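Notebook entry, structure prediction.
Reason for the run: the old model in the group folder had no record of what sequence produced it. Starting over properly, with the input documented here first.
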Amino acid sequence: MIITMNRLERLRKRIERNLASSVAKIQRKAEKEQIAADEELIRLQKKADRIKMRSDVSRAEAERRLETVRQKSAENLARIESKLAPKIKNVDSEPKTDEVLAAERAAKKRSRSGKSMYDLFAESSFVDIESLLQEAETREEKAFYRQVLNLKLQIEQEKVIGEVLY
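New structure, fully documented this time:
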């Protein structure tokens, strides 16, 4: 089969047209896909911006709520402190010792009864002090009443003997 030049030329032109047509189709398809990808990218960027805006709004709202809670807590603390302040008159940072507490109790009793500790001591009998010793609950209380009882005995011995004992 002999192909003529003319026919070859026509065939070449047809192949070129088909090729150009195919390239044009591929280019249009690629352009459409690029446009779709760009539109999707723009859509996703807008969505990301909306989410970021909501996140910023949520963060600002959370900060505002936190500040409100802090203010209410401070107000509640101030209110509680103002209610408790009259009840807490003289609170020392260090706990009071047993001796200080005993002296305070004795001062209160003396102010109520109008008698000094010595007057109470002098009026107490051996039996009274022994009963207080037996009723004592703490070790310190028992030691105190023992010392008071010993002092009472020593004073009685001094009266009998007639000289001061140390």
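Summary: The radius of gyration is 52 Å.
The old model has been moved to the deprecated folder.
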